[in-house]
Amino acid sequence: MHRYDRQITLIGDENQKKLESSTVTIVGTGALGSACAELLGRAGIGNLRVIDDDIVHLSNLQRQHLFSESDIAKNKARIAAMKLKKINPTITITPIAERLTKENTGLLEGLIIDCTDNHKTRLLIDDYCKENDLLWIHGAAAGVNGQVLVVDKKTNYQKLHPTDKAERKASDVGILNTITTIIGSLQANEAIKILTGKQHEKKLVRVNVNTLKFDKIKV
Length: 219
What we know:
219 residues; alpha/beta; Rossmann fold; 8-stranded mixed β-sheet; 8 helices
Protein backbone atom coordinates (compact mmCIF):
# COMPACT_ATOMS: atom_id res chain seq x y z
CA MET A 1 0.00 0.00 0.00
CA HIS A 2 1.26 3.47 -0.92
CA ARG A 3 1.61 6.23 1.71
CA TYR A 4 -0.45 8.58 -0.49
CA ASP A 5 -3.07 6.06 -1.73
CA ARG A 6 -6.11 8.05 -0.58
CA GLN A 7 -4.70 11.28 -1.93
CA ILE A 8 -3.65 9.79 -5.27
CA THR A 9 -7.17 8.41 -5.69
CA LEU A 10 -8.37 12.01 -5.62
CA ILE A 11 -5.62 14.02 -7.35
CA GLY A 12 -3.87 11.37 -9.48
CA ASP A 13 -0.27 10.14 -9.80
CA GLU A 14 0.98 13.10 -11.85
CA ASN A 15 -0.25 15.65 -9.35
CA GLN A 16 1.26 13.66 -6.49
CA LYS A 17 4.58 13.76 -8.31
CA LYS A 18 4.20 17.53 -8.63
CA LEU A 19 3.81 17.81 -4.86
CA GLU A 20 6.83 15.59 -4.30
CA SER A 21 8.97 17.79 -6.56
CA SER A 22 7.76 21.06 -5.00
CA THR A 23 9.42 23.43 -2.53
CA VAL A 24 7.36 25.27 0.09
CA THR A 25 8.70 27.76 2.62
CA ILE A 26 6.57 28.34 5.72
CA VAL A 27 7.43 31.50 7.65
CA GLY A 28 6.39 31.01 11.26
CA THR A 29 5.80 27.63 12.91
CA GLY A 30 3.31 28.71 15.56
CA ALA A 31 -0.37 27.84 15.43
CA LEU A 32 -0.98 28.44 11.71
CA GLY A 33 2.46 27.14 10.79
CA SER A 34 2.11 23.96 12.83
CA ALA A 35 -1.21 23.05 11.23
CA CYS A 36 -0.10 24.01 7.73
CA ALA A 37 3.31 22.33 7.91
CA GLU A 38 1.89 19.10 9.30
CA LEU A 39 -0.72 18.85 6.54
CA LEU A 40 1.77 19.62 3.77
CA GLY A 41 4.32 17.23 5.26
CA ARG A 42 1.75 14.45 5.35
CA ALA A 43 0.66 15.35 1.80
CA GLY A 44 4.19 14.74 0.53
CA ILE A 45 5.64 18.15 -0.29
CA GLY A 46 9.13 17.09 -1.32
CA ASN A 47 11.10 20.02 0.07
CA LEU A 48 9.56 21.73 3.09
CA ARG A 49 11.36 24.68 4.69
CA VAL A 50 10.27 26.13 8.05
CA ILE A 51 11.52 29.49 9.33
CA ASP A 52 11.17 30.62 12.95
CA ASP A 53 13.60 32.04 15.51
CA ASP A 54 11.14 31.74 18.42
CA ILE A 55 11.09 29.13 21.17
CA VAL A 56 8.20 27.03 22.43
CA HIS A 57 6.29 28.49 25.39
CA LEU A 58 3.76 26.77 27.65
CA SER A 59 1.00 29.07 26.37
CA ASN A 60 1.65 27.82 22.82
CA LEU A 61 0.55 24.27 23.58
CA GLN A 62 -3.16 25.12 23.49
CA ARG A 63 -3.05 25.53 19.71
CA GLN A 64 0.37 24.69 18.23
CA HIS A 65 -0.02 21.06 17.14
CA LEU A 66 3.58 20.00 16.73
CA PHE A 67 4.77 20.83 20.25
CA SER A 68 4.50 19.25 23.70
CA GLU A 69 5.72 20.17 27.18
CA SER A 70 9.08 18.49 26.59
CA ASP A 71 9.71 21.02 23.80
CA ILE A 72 9.40 24.14 25.97
CA ALA A 73 12.34 26.57 25.54
CA LYS A 74 13.49 24.82 22.34
CA ASN A 75 13.50 26.41 18.89
CA LYS A 76 10.18 25.98 17.08
CA ALA A 77 11.60 25.44 13.60
CA ARG A 78 13.99 22.70 14.74
CA ILE A 79 11.36 20.90 16.81
CA ALA A 80 8.80 21.16 14.00
CA ALA A 81 11.27 19.69 11.53
CA MET A 82 12.11 16.82 13.88
CA LYS A 83 8.43 15.99 14.45
CA LEU A 84 7.58 16.25 10.75
CA LYS A 85 10.46 13.97 9.81
CA LYS A 86 9.01 11.32 12.12
CA ILE A 87 5.61 11.75 10.50
CA ASN A 88 6.99 11.52 6.95
CA PRO A 89 10.64 10.46 6.61
CA THR A 90 10.39 10.44 2.80
CA ILE A 91 10.47 14.25 2.46
CA THR A 92 13.23 16.81 2.99
CA ILE A 93 12.59 19.25 5.84
CA THR A 94 14.90 22.19 6.46
CA PRO A 95 14.59 24.09 9.75
CA ILE A 96 15.82 27.68 9.69
CA ALA A 97 16.12 29.09 13.21
CA GLU A 98 16.33 32.72 12.12
CA ARG A 99 14.11 35.78 12.06
CA LEU A 100 13.30 36.87 8.53
CA THR A 101 14.94 40.22 7.78
CA LYS A 102 15.58 42.36 4.72
CA GLU A 103 19.09 40.91 4.58
CA ASN A 104 18.08 37.24 4.50
CA THR A 105 14.94 37.17 2.32
CA GLY A 106 16.93 34.88 0.02
CA LEU A 107 15.86 32.14 2.46
CA LEU A 108 12.44 32.31 0.83
CA GLU A 109 12.17 29.60 -1.83
CA GLY A 110 9.37 28.06 -3.84
CA LEU A 111 5.82 28.77 -2.72
CA ILE A 112 5.88 30.99 0.37
CA ILE A 113 3.27 30.68 3.12
CA ASP A 114 2.93 33.44 5.70
CA CYS A 115 2.08 31.92 9.08
CA THR A 116 3.51 34.79 11.12
CA ASP A 117 1.81 37.23 13.46
CA ASN A 118 4.11 40.09 12.50
CA HIS A 119 3.16 42.87 10.09
CA LYS A 120 6.76 43.84 9.28
CA THR A 121 7.61 40.26 8.33
CA ARG A 122 4.60 40.11 6.03
CA LEU A 123 5.74 43.27 4.28
CA LEU A 124 9.18 41.71 3.76
CA ILE A 125 7.53 38.65 2.22
CA ASP A 126 5.36 40.83 0.01
CA ASP A 127 8.29 42.95 -1.21
CA TYR A 128 10.40 39.88 -1.98
CA CYS A 129 7.60 38.11 -3.84
CA LYS A 130 6.75 41.21 -5.87
CA GLU A 131 10.41 41.60 -6.88
CA ASN A 132 10.66 37.95 -7.88
CA ASP A 133 7.16 37.49 -9.32
CA LEU A 134 6.21 34.83 -6.76
CA LEU A 135 2.90 33.88 -5.19
CA TRP A 136 2.52 33.84 -1.43
CA ILE A 137 -0.30 32.74 0.84
CA HIS A 138 -1.21 35.10 3.66
CA GLY A 139 -2.94 33.85 6.80
CA ALA A 140 -3.89 35.48 10.11
CA ALA A 141 -6.06 34.65 13.10
CA ALA A 142 -7.07 36.18 16.43
CA GLY A 143 -10.01 35.68 18.76
CA VAL A 144 -12.59 33.69 16.78
CA ASN A 145 -11.72 35.22 13.40
CA GLY A 146 -9.23 34.41 10.69
CA GLN A 147 -8.43 35.17 7.09
CA VAL A 148 -6.60 33.72 4.10
CA LEU A 149 -5.49 35.45 0.91
CA VAL A 150 -3.41 34.22 -2.00
CA VAL A 151 -1.30 37.24 -2.95
CA ASP A 152 -0.25 37.44 -6.59
CA LYS A 153 1.28 40.23 -8.66
CA LYS A 154 -2.15 41.81 -9.17
CA THR A 155 -2.84 42.03 -5.44
CA ASN A 156 -1.85 45.21 -3.61
CA TYR A 157 -1.35 43.66 -0.18
CA GLN A 158 0.24 46.79 1.26
CA LYS A 159 -2.77 48.87 0.29
CA LEU A 160 -5.01 46.29 1.93
CA HIS A 161 -2.88 46.30 5.11
CA PRO A 162 -0.88 49.57 5.12
CA THR A 163 -0.07 49.49 8.85
CA ASP A 164 -0.26 47.11 11.79
CA LYS A 165 -2.64 49.34 13.75
CA ALA A 166 -5.69 47.26 12.88
CA GLU A 167 -4.01 43.94 13.72
CA ARG A 168 -5.62 42.03 16.56
CA LYS A 169 -3.01 40.00 18.37
CA ALA A 170 -3.82 36.72 20.10
CA SER A 171 -1.86 37.87 23.15
CA ASP A 172 -4.29 40.78 23.54
CA VAL A 173 -7.68 39.34 22.55
CA GLY A 174 -7.16 35.60 23.11
CA ILE A 175 -7.62 32.90 20.50
CA LEU A 176 -9.44 29.62 19.95
CA ASN A 177 -7.41 26.70 18.64
CA THR A 178 -10.18 25.88 16.19
CA ILE A 179 -9.70 29.08 14.17
CA THR A 180 -5.94 28.65 13.84
CA THR A 181 -6.38 25.05 12.69
CA ILE A 182 -8.98 26.11 10.11
CA ILE A 183 -6.82 28.93 8.73
CA GLY A 184 -3.68 26.77 8.60
CA SER A 185 -5.70 24.07 6.83
CA LEU A 186 -7.05 26.55 4.27
CA GLN A 187 -3.51 27.77 3.59
CA ALA A 188 -2.35 24.19 3.02
CA ASN A 189 -5.34 23.57 0.77
CA GLU A 190 -4.56 26.61 -1.39
CA ALA A 191 -0.92 25.50 -1.57
CA ILE A 192 -1.90 22.05 -2.86
CA LYS A 193 -4.17 23.65 -5.47
CA ILE A 194 -1.43 26.00 -6.67
CA LEU A 195 1.26 23.30 -6.78
CA THR A 196 -0.96 20.93 -8.77
CA GLY A 197 -1.96 23.59 -11.28
CA LYS A 198 -5.50 24.20 -10.09
CA GLN A 199 -7.03 27.66 -9.85
CA HIS A 200 -6.45 29.21 -6.43
CA GLU A 201 -9.01 31.32 -4.58
CA LYS A 202 -8.89 34.89 -5.86
CA LYS A 203 -10.76 36.54 -3.01
CA LEU A 204 -9.93 37.27 0.62
CA VAL A 205 -11.58 34.55 2.71
CA ARG A 206 -12.69 35.52 6.21
CA VAL A 207 -13.91 33.01 8.78
CA ASN A 208 -15.72 33.38 12.12
CA VAL A 209 -15.90 30.14 14.09
CA ASN A 210 -18.61 31.41 16.46
CA THR A 211 -21.08 32.08 13.68
CA LEU A 212 -19.58 29.55 11.24
CA LYS A 213 -19.71 32.30 8.67
CA PHE A 214 -17.36 32.36 5.68
CA ASP A 215 -17.10 35.59 3.70
CA LYS A 216 -15.32 36.12 0.38
CA ILE A 217 -14.24 39.67 -0.35
CA LYS A 218 -12.85 40.93 -3.65
CA VAL A 219 -9.61 42.82 -3.06
